[in-house]
Amino acid sequence: MALLPRLRQLMRRPSSASKVGARRPTSAARRGDTLHEDALRSMLSDDPNNVRAFQALAEIVRRRAAESAVDGDPLSAPHDEQEKQRAADLAVWSLGEELAGHPRAWYPLVELARLSVHDDHDGAMRRLLTAAERDSSGEALAEGLAVLRDAGQPVEALGLGVGHWRPREHSPEVGAHLVRAAIEADRAFEARQHLQSLDMYPDQRSITDLKAELEALVVRAESRTAGA
């Protein structure tokens, strides 16, 4: 079964009364990483956008879910690998949904969008939009643009970024993603505009190398366009 139908089944299940970030009950034996898991959940309860804590906890729940999906029959190994991947994705989806309930949470929404960007494009875009609106630094927007670019959707990345990027206030990584997305979408002129917008960032000294790197990319894109 594809990931999205499995996710829909998961979302239709009756919700529990557990608090955001609380470890889910399990009948499995306590593992060596249980204390680590509890510590990570506590950290995420305080800051749901702690990227390193989320990724570490996601690795734990992925591994546990994958182990639970194995039936021990070597003849079913290819099937087991698929089931392990689905189980791991479902576990991370469940974790993301738990933490996304926090009113300041944006990173869990980005991870939910990453899992659903191919199967539920509209839903993924809504999650990325909400994530961007919850974060004033531009970090969430940059992460969302990376998700779309990694999914081979540079035009969608441009649509999300253009309407929400504030060059004077946001991380310059947002501008860098927009320049690269415009190049990937064969829009050299637009890439040049985004690069020029980085001139509005207050700390120009800190982005000198970044702008030089982007300038080289834009020049090559412009050369390809001129030679076409």
Describe the secondary-structure layout:
Blueprint: H1 3-12, H2 34-46, H3 51-68, H4 77-100, H5 107-116, H6 121-133, H7 139-150, H8 154-162, H9 172-184, H10 188-197, H11 208-227
Helix pairs in contact: 1-4, 2-3, 3-4, 4-5, 5-6, 5-7, 6-7, 7-8, 7-9, 8-9, 9-10, 9-11, 10-11
Describe the structure.
Helix 7 packs parallel to helix 9 and helix 9 packs antiparallel against helix 10 (188-197). This protein has eleven helices and no strands. The protein is an all-alpha fold. The chain has helices at residues 3-12, 34-46, 51-68, 77-100, 107-116, 121-133, 139-150, 154-162, 172-184, 188-197, 208-227. The chain is globular, with a radius of gyration of 20 Å. Helix content is 67%, strand content 0%. It folds into two domains: 1-10 and 34-134, no CATH class; 137-228.
List keywords for this structure.
globular; 228 residues; 11 helices; 67% helix
Distance between the termini: 44 Å
Tally of domains: 2
Mean pLDDT over all positions? 85
Report the biggest beta sheet as strand number plus sense, adding barrel if it closes. none
> How would you sum up the global shape?
globular
Q: Quick one: how many beta strands?
A: 0
Q: Approximately how much helix is present in the residues?
A: 55-70%
Class by alpha and beta content: mainly alpha
Instruction: Return Rg in Å.
Output: 20 Å
